[in-house]
Design goal:
The complex is a heterodimer of chains A (464) and B (112). Chain A is of the alpha/beta class. Chain A has 15 helices and 22 strands. Chain A has three domains: 183 residues, 3-Layer(bba) Sandwich (FAD/NAD(P)-binding domain), CATH 3.50.50.60; 145 residues, FAD/NAD(P)-binding domain, CATH 3.50.50; 60 residues, BFD-like [2Fe-2S]-binding domain (Arc Repressor Mutant, subunit A). In chain A, strands 3-2-1-7-20 form a five-stranded parallel beta sheet, with helices on one face. The chains are: A alpha/beta (464), B alpha/beta (112).
Chain lengths: 464, 112
């Protein structure tokens, strides 16, 4: 096989860029596609505009943002970046359909690395569709890349290690942070102490954040969560309560805050729409619905397609870095550029690190495992599918009429048929149907080609 | 007369109040709902909207108003009209000099 054919990498986040750098170190060219204007993925993308100082971001994050840019800089002879570029899906054998502004074109590959990361899980509750309710990662992007405050008085609600981190960043950015609401109980964290100590530095950083919150009088409430939000055009109030072990709000424990923006974070879902369109083999996954099958080298059921990072299973930045490098090493070995001995020597430390990351992550996953009580946060008229304006009552009706799988639910109610292709409402629909039928065998909302809408203008000007 | 025009333009300009650090770099101006606003090359439309405190952004095909939700191109809840083109994602469209941005417009309502 020719070593000059570039490997195509979808996603310039941690997984994609570490794969590109590892390939470059072996002298292999790559083309990296990303929909954003900068590399680094949602976590390490950094400011979009020039900024002399970033007082709200800690020095470790600033260092990582500059590291990833430096690594690209050092290896750019081997890496062709194509930013602001969307992958729309497969285009025949060994080819992708891509869009850059109004230009739609095909890009062929011999080997493909899918590193599309994740998006956030939506947990609908009464009022969640109003302006002012934002997903936690979306809030973070405004702080890190937009350099703007999405609100003036805010609270952070959900579960997971990102909650205190975002609360600290918001406070340092000048936002009045009124409280952090973690659905997991403090005793759950104590139980997972051993798992969390697999990454002692991360655990210590977490402790540092908690003491920052205490020092700045930002209350951290464990075992509490969202009930609803209310307002006129924009939200102006959020209502919280203590949760039971199954995360049902407990009557009579409610509190309210006056605020203009609420950050909601109940975890992440793999972006595996592309691997689904390629018809790769997937397993059923309690976190993301589906999980593409990969071997220890991140190789999928088609041997020239690799999947690395959060798009194959949510592990965060360190896991993504390791998986990207393993995929690259495997490609270098298959191209007979690196010997199996060298590849195994490099891979050894990566396997060890990946194992520790997985054990650390499992601790948080057990605490943050979403519980059935979240399904009780919707009133009959609460919107489930924002794109198609489908309320909960429409879903209740068709479940009452005997719908037993997600595709029928979609056909009957139009959930998931809008512009976002169900990425926002799918988690609720999946959980709800699974809960009602006491089964995981309910199918899943299938992604459609193209993965993102193409304007007519692009069709007229682009494909001739 | 020119002074009057300048004054009118000044009064009609939106202030950026939500920037975390003072804007620096290459400045330009864009039109947001027929009002002028300063923008910096490199940033996207969404950060300009947040900077001036504009949270209610999109009117969807069912006449419901939404604001930025995922902030990363997944949810289509921050669609705006850019230079007459509908359904452009504010979170994934970069600022260009003189750009006209209109919020809460919808093609279904305007007709074709």
């Amino acid at each position: 096989m020719q070593s000059s054919t570039p490997v195509i990498i979808v996603g310039a986040g941690t997984a994609g860029m570490s794969a590109a750098v590892e390939l470059a170190q072996a002298g292999i060219y790559s083309i990296v596609l990303d929909e954003a204007p900068k590399i680094g993925g949602a976590v390490f993308r950094g400011p979009y505009r020039e900024a002399i100082e970033l007082p709200h971001l800690d020095s470790k994050l600033r260092k990582k943002i500059s590291n990833i840019r430096q690594q690209y800089h050092d290896h750019q002879t081997f890496i062709e970046l194509r930013l602001n570029t969307r992958v729309l899906g497969p285009a025949g054998q060994h080819s992708l359909l891509i869009r850059h502004k109004e230009d739609v074109s095909e890009l062929s590959y011999e080997q493909l690395i899918i590193a599309t990361g994740c998006h956030e899980r939506s947990v609908p509750f009464d009022g969640w569709q109003m302006p002012g309710v934002m997903l936690l990662g979306g809030v973070q992007l405004q702080l890190k890349s937009g350099l703007v405050r999405p609100g003036q008085r805010m609270a952070v609600v959900g579960t997971g290690p990102l909650l205190p981190l975002v609360a600290c960043q918001l406070h340092k950015a000048g936002v009045n942070v009124l409280g952090v609401y973690e659905a997991g109980k403090l005793s759950d964290f104590a139980k997972e102490g051993r798992a969390l100590l697999n990454r002692p530095v991360l655990a210590l950083e977490g402790m540092g954040m908690l003491s920052y919150l205490t020092a700045n009088s930002i209350p951290m409430h464990y075992g509490q969560g969202i009930v609803s939000v209310s307002g006129d055009e924009n939200i102006n109030k959020a209502h919280f309560a203590k949760y039971t072990d199954d995360w049902y709000p407990i009557d009579g424990t409610g509190t309210s805050l006056e605020l203009d923006c609420l950050a909601v974070g109940y975890g992440f879902v793999s972006r595996n729409q592309l691997s689904q369109l390629f018809q790769l083999e997937h397993d059923i996954c309690p976190t993301s619905g589906l999980k593409p099958q990969v071997n220890v080298w991140q190789q999928s059921s088609q041997d020239n397609i690799y999947i690395a990072g959060d798009s194959v299973g949510i592990l965060g930045g360190e896991g993504a870095m390791v998986e990207g490098r393993l995929a690259a090493l495997s490609i270098a070995q298959n191209r007979k550029i690196l010997t199996p001995e060298i590849v195994n020597k490099h891979a050894g430390t990566y396997f060890t690190l990946l194992h520790k990351v997985k054990r650390f992550r499992a601790g948080f996953d057990r605490i943050g495992r979403r519980r059935e009580g979240l399904l009780s946060l919707l009133k009959p008229n609460t919107i489930v599918c924002r794109c198609e304006n489908v309320p909960r009552s429409a879903i209740d009706d068709v479940i009452g009429q005997g719908v037993k799988d997600i595709t029928s639910l979609k056909m009957r109610t139009r959930v998931g048929m809008g512009d976002c292709q169900g990425k926002t409402c799918n988690s609720y629909c999946q959980d709800r149907l699974g809960y009602e039928l006491k089964s995981t065998d309910i199918g899943h909302i299938k992604p459609r080609f193209p993965l993102d809408p193409i304007p007519f203008s692009a069709l007229f000007d682009g494909v001739q | 007369m020119d002074q009057y025009k300048e004054l009118m333009e000044h009064n009609n300009k939106l202030d950026r109040k939500q920037d975390i650090v003072p804007p620096s770099g290459q400045f330009t101006q864009v039109w947001l709902d027929n009002q002028k606003v300063d923008a910096v090359l490199g940033e996207n439309i969404l950060s300009v909207l947040f900077a001036v405190g504009k949270n209610a952004i999109t009117q969807n095909d069912h006449a419901k108003v939404s604001g930025a939700y995922c902030g990363m191109g997944v949810c289509h809840c921050c669609n705006v009209q850019v230079n007459g083109k509908h359904k452009m994602k504010a979170c994934q469209t970069l600022i260009e000099p003189g750009m006209r941005i209109d919020t809460q417009t919808n093609r279904l309502e305007e007709g074709f």
